[in-house]
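Comment thread on ticket #2218

A.B. wrote:
> Attaching the input chain for the structure job we discussed in standup.
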Amino acid sequence: MLKKFDTSLMIVLVWGIFVFTCIFAIVTLANRPKSHSIFRLDSEYTICLGAKDLTHADTIKTQMQKICLKHVNNYNVSERESFFSDNAGNVSSTISLIYYFENAPLESVQNIMDEAILNCNQNYILLKEIKSKNTFYRGNDGR
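C.D. wrote:
> Ran it. Output below, let me know if you need it in another format.
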């Protein structure tokens, strides 16, 4: 009879320890501090297209919107005026359209460049790849 009591007691103790461990784990995970940031290592790609003037730049932006959204989900574009001089010292300017792609595969960016060369009257396109560490900051309140 004593042996049966010891076995039953052992089963109850094991179950008790198991239940306590489960409850402790659930409470600990529920009360842990929330992370305020998410870190990722990515490659960012930037391409640069040239335009003769603002009218040409607007035409390129319209065409590039169709091309880009066919290959990537999002992108950013900025417009800059670039200056250069020739061997005789004559200063010229052009409009540069800078396209930024984050979280896009290189193959998609290359497809965009191939279509842009054909459809946007470009002789070449400058491609820049940057290895970056991106942080999505959530704020101090842990939202």
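A.B. wrote:
> Thanks. Noting for the ticket: The longest strand covers residues 37-51.
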